[in-house]
Amino acid sequence: MPHEHKSHSLNRLDRRRFLQLGALATVGTAVAGLAGCGTSASNGEPADNTPLTIGYVPIACSAPIAIADALGLFKKHGANVVLKKFSGWADLWTAYATEQLDVAHMLSPMTVAIDAGVTNAARPTELSFTQNTNGQAITLASKHYGSVNSAQDFKGMVLGIPFEYSVHALLLRDYLAANGVDPIADVELRLLRPADMVAQLSVEGIDGFIGPEPFNERAIKSGSGKIWLMTKQLWDKHPCCSVAMAKEWKAEHSSAAQGVISALEEAAAILSTPAQFDSSAQTLSQEKYLNQPAELLDGPFSGVYQDWHGNTHTDLERMSFGDPTDPAAIVWMATQIARWGLGGDTLTMDDATIIKAAQSVLAPGLSVSGERLSINGVDFDPLAPTRGYDHMDSVIFR
Prior knowledge:
Low-confidence stretches: 1-40, 391-398
CATH class of the largest domain: Alpha Beta
Order of helices and strands: HEHHEHEHEEEEHEHEHEEHHHHEEEHHEE
Largest sheet: 5 strands, mixed
Shape: globular
Number of helices: 14
Number of domains: 3
């Protein structure tokens, strides 16, 4: 059964207040400082004016990229950026793997998969910035209300996922397995572009999906779906999307790379400021960004949502932007890629192999340590990542 949120820790609220205060100062200067601001990078080095195309998928997780573009923050920090929109992850993955893009919005597990070369798409890649944490949900068709009371009732369902190498797909598999449902034999996981999920739900092509905003909100507003669980309830503060950089590009364009990161940090601070929620939603709603009604972002930004039973909650950490990259989380993602047979012969269920794959995508200065995570009721040790799943019987380490 869905469960209630735990109260937020003081350090989380303190961090949010800090971001809000920083953003209030930022917003007042963001536009005023644009004139002539492309002449120097954030670190004082000469600006790298080499054109850079950043690919992204139009979902709420990409908000830092869109806001940085809209407010001219890339230019302010010395990066000559244009954005290119992709309708789904498969097309973006191909464009990046074939070097049409050097910097891209990626689902965080994608960075591990492409850097490790688990498919024929291989490219040395760094996870340079975590765009958002939390902000996803499992949404089921409204017709299932009253007949679905636990994960066991998911058996026989067709569930949409945005990409195999997504925290969505990995977390859903783990959630089902933790509740005695085999995510291979008992359900069908179907790849769908985020924009197609609600349409498929409406015509009963799928029974539900795990996906980003604003598509959970769209399903609710259309009456076609209801939120079963926030993914935050499965794993609080889980990373979702990132900005990835090709390692060879970053080495050749360090000034531009730092400019991109600085712009994203500033945009994330703005997105964390309640006073800026409305203006941010209006900006993101534009056709060139998310092309979605601004009101669909009200809930994700304010934290207000209705649970499976129609009860209204306010969770200020429903979706966060710009949290530090968590090395332990990347180890968990690498573990799940191996566990479910998505790592081929390259990323296998071996502790050293998994830790190496995770460490490889981390930015300089970050390293895997022993800070544990609680995910779907399992205590996950990033220094011994293959341990802890033996209670799941047949649904382990495929």
